[in-house]
Design brief:
By secondary structure, the protein is α/β, with parallel strands linked by helices. The chain has one domain (2-308): Alpha-Beta Complex (Spore Coat Polysaccharide Biosynthesis Protein SpsA, Chain A). Helix content is 33%, strand content 20%. It is built from 13 helices and 13 strands. The strands form two sheets. The chain has a nine-stranded mixed β-sheet with strand order 3-2-1-4-9-6-10-12-13, with helices on both faces. The radius of gyration is 19 Å and the shape is globular.
Length: 310
């Protein structure tokens, strides 16, 4: 399995990606801070680390917060410590606490966290930097994609690709209604993080990322780019798969978030899926628009435009 894994994933290439001294528009490469929380993920973490450092991104701040792993995780981290800005291995209070510890040290213009079993694509940081600069966005996500059997990239054909901040605030962008943005594929600006309080909710075990998206939605629209930015690994011990607390954590806080009643949201989602009622649902919800970024082959450039959310 180990040899098959190493032969199948781009991170096992020998050379770092190469970058020009500035972006194509002449601007300097923004600092990107990536935080990786880990605990006993020695079987996967080397691929995760390499997917970050082998980007060759010229202005990278990479922070690894390990919770005191007892497997070979620390040895793997040490193998790459010359490419890691900061790392520590010590007991913590769980994943969310580790992520917050990492972001306390992060000084980048663009931020994200990558769990220790997920990976970026080889072009991810370059593309993220260029899109943030070109379109002056504060919040970006890519297509929901998974890493499956023998490291196959499996984009989800039914993934949500259109998002709207008002619908987020009303409670429609949840896994059981209109869908949400995939965590490892999501990047945000430091200024947006500051606006949202710069700290993930440590009372949540599974939904602290979605909780942060709700907070982001109070300030900025989420832009979607039609590209795979990251792969979330699917395996039997995946935390979200084993705990399954999203519904309890989110709907249990629906009144605090200011969501519309669940029965109202379900009714409107049902209307959205029926063509004859869709226009009425749009009118009720204020004709929500989504920010969409796509590649134009005729112009050989990325274009950002608005679409109807549904």
């Amino acid at each position: 399995m180990e040899s098959e894994s190493r032969n199948g994933l781009w991170v096992w290439q020998d050379k770092f990606n190469q970058f020009a001294s500035t972006m194509a528009n002449g601007k300097p490469w923004p600092k990107i801070s990536i935080v990786t929380p880990s605990f006993n993920q020695g079987h996967y973490i080397e691929e995760t680390i390499r997917s970050v450092v082998m980007q060759g991104y010229p202005n990278l701040e990479y922070i690894v917060i390990d919770g005191g792993s007892t497997d070979d995780t620390v040895g793997i981290i040490k193998k790459y410590e010359s490419k890691i800005t900061y790392w520590v291995s010590e007991k913590d209070n769980g994943q969310t606490h580790a992520i917050n510890k990492g972001f306390e040290r992060a000084t980048g213009d663009i931020l994200a966290y990558l769990n220790s079993d997920d990976v970026y694509m080889p072009y991810t940081l370059r593309l993220v930097a260029e899109l943030f600069s070109e379109f002056s966005i504060d919040w970006l996500t890519g297509h929901r994609s998974h890493l499956v059997n023998l490291n196959v990239n499996a984009p989800l054909p039914t993934a949500t690709v259109k998002f709207n901040s008002a619908l987020y605030r009303k409670g429609f962008h949840t896994p059981w209604l209109l869908g949400w943005n995939q965590q490892p594929s999501t990047f945000w600006s430091a200024r947006l993080f500051d606006m949202a309080g710069r700290k993930f909710n440590e009372q949540m075990q599974c939904s602290f990322d979605i909780d942060m998206w709700f907070r982001f939605a109070a300030f900025r629209e989420l832009a979607y780019v039609r590209a795979t930015l990251a792969l979330m690994r699917q395996h039997a011990n995946q935390k979200s798969r084993t705990l399954r607390l999203d519904y309890t954590e989110i709907e249990g806080n629906a009144s605090n978030y200011g969501f519309q009643p669940l029965i109202t949201r379900k009714l409107l989602v049902w209307m959205i899926r029926i063509p004859l009622l869709r226009k009425l649902a749009r009118a009720i919800l204020g004709n929500p628009k989504s920010k969409y970024i796509d590649w134009s082959p005729l112009e050989s450039t990325w274009r950002c435009f608005e679409k109807n959310t549904f």
